[in-house]
Structure formats: structure tokens, C-alpha cells
Amino acid sequence: MHGTLGPTAVQIDPAILYFGTPVVLIGSTNDDGSYNLAPMSSAWWVGWRCMLGLARNSRTTENMIRTGECVLNLPSAELVAAVDSLARTTGSDPVPPGKLYRGYRHAKDKFGLCGLTALSGETVSAPRAVECPVQMEAKVAHMHEMAEDDAVFRGHLAAIEVRITRVHAHPDIMMDGASNRIDPDKWRPLILSFQEFYGLTPQRLQRSELGQIPEAMYRPPGWQPAL
Ligand SMILES: Cc1cc2nc3c(=O)[nH]c(=O)nc-3n(C[C@H](O)[C@H](O)[C@H](O)COP(=O)(O)O)c2cc1C
């Protein structure tokens, strides 16, 4: 509503700035050929590209740099317990000191731990998580070291750009009569806000002006994803 001033904001100093983003379960391949699966939520998409904010010392980050690939599995809100069972675990052995400090433990078989089913990708050998309604196969395009200007965080954070090579979706989140469209009324993402899990409101808030643009107009004519 215009014209109403809210409460006056006060200056605060929060330790984290995680205001609410979808959870991604990144599937990657360990150096012995086994699979790793890790929850993360510092992710956003533009076109068929995704930026992933990852701790440099995570097994997932090491696997993605070594193999150049991953699968971005998007859990629905109903998979919250599976996601939570992976929290405070790492495929790294030994557990890095910073993670030990926050109470992490090593887990070798993360698919077994959370009860999700692994399936090798078609354009990558990293694993899809079959129960996730969206599974996006991806290849690493670029890695950006974050916080190089910060003496404390330097060397600890990476922003990895990946190129999506194939998208798989469960039929029950697809729009009726449109083979390439996810129906946002059916897709129920799991959201992490600060350190807690949420879903979205069941109903749309109001009509969307952006929603008047045909989705197909976002695909350049003749464009195909490079594999
Ligand atoms: C819901 C959720 C979201 C998370 N988001 C991120 C994130 O965006 N970036 C990150 O580096 N770690 C994130 N983490 C922590 C990682 O899961 C953690 O570093 C884990 O040890 C990675 O596993 P890995 O070492 O086997 O790759 C998140 C954890 C949970 C449970």
C-alpha cells in the first residue's frame, strides 16, 4: 500500500543474510566414483545459467571443480525431512575444522542417509535424485572466487556459474497442455529462510504483470542448450 510509512528501520548486524531462497540438492561424483548429495540454497537462475554460492571446502565444490559437472535437484516442500537429514553432514573425511566447530559429521552415503534414489544423469555422470520434482543436469562454466577483498573470508567462498544441459521434471508439476512449462500453481519449492524451512503460500498473491509475457518469449529463436 502506498502512502503508509512502516516502522522506522533500525541498524542491525546479523551474522547471516539468508533472506529466503529455494533449496537445491546438488548431486556430484566423488573421486572414487561414488555419489555425493548436498543441500544448499544460495542459488539463482538467469536463462539456462545458474549461480551457486558454495563454501570452498565442501566436498561438492571439490567434486564440481574436478569433474566439471553436477545435477541441481530441486526438492519440493514435502521432501523437507529428507533435506533436514542431510544437514550438518559432509562428504569430506576428515571433516574440515570450520564444520567440526558447527557440529558437522562425515557421511559417506548421503543418498542412503536421506532415503532418496540416485540415477545417473544423461549429459553428466553426476546423480539425479529421482524423488525431486525438478532435476537439472549442469556443467561448470566459470568459477569466481568471492570476498577476495576480505582478509577473513578470502579463499573460503566460491560463486560457481553452471550451464544447464538438461532439465527433467515430474509430470505432476507440468502445466496442462503445455509440454515445456512448469505450472507455478503446482510447483511447491522448499524455501530456506535464515536457518528455517518454509513453503510458499498456496495461492498467488495477485495478478502478475510479468505473467502477461508469453514464457516462450524468453527463449531466443533457434537456441538450443550446448551439451
Ligand atoms: C538447507 C541448507 C542450505 C544450505 N545452503 C548452503 C549454501 O547455500 N552454500 C553452502 O556452501 N552451504 C550450504 N549449506 C551447508 C552445506 O550443506 C554443507 O556445507 C555441507 O557440508 C556440504 O556437503 P559436502 O561437504 O558433502 O559437499 C546448506 C545446508 C542446508 C541444510
Task: Give an overview in words.
This protein has helices spanning 59-67, 80-86, 97-101, 110-114; strands at residues 21-22, 24-29, 35-40, 43-46, 49-55, 69-74, 89-90, 105-106, 118-120, 127-129, 134-145, 157-169, 191-193, 196-198. The chain contains 4 helices and 14 strands. It starts with 20 loop residues before the first strand and ends in a 29-residue tail after the last strand. It is globular. It has one domain (21-218): Pnp Oxidase, Chain A, CATH 2.30.110.10. The mean pLDDT is 97. It has a 7-stranded antiparallel beta sheet, with helices on one face. A 3-stranded antiparallel beta sheet has the order 1-13-14, with no helix packed on it. The protein has a two-stranded parallel ribbon with strand order 7-8. It is mostly beta strands and 227 residues long. The protein binds flavin mononucleotide (FMN).
Provide a compact summary of the structure.
The chain has 227 residues and is mostly beta strands. Helices cover 11% and strands 32% of the residues.
Rg is: 19 Å
Number of H- or I-type helical stretches: 4
Helix content: 10-25%
Count of extended strands: 14
CATH domain class? Mainly Beta
User: What proportion strand?
Assistant: 25-35%
Bound molecules: flavin mononucleotide
Structural class: mainly beta
Task: Name the CATH superfamily classification.
Answer: Electron Transport, Fmn-binding Protein, Chain A
Which regions contain 5 or more consecutive residues with pLDDT less than 50?
none
**Average pLDDT reading:** 97
Main β-sheet, spatial strand arrangement:
3-2-6-11-12-5-4
Largest sheet: 7 strands, antiparallel
**How far from one another are the termini?**
47 Å
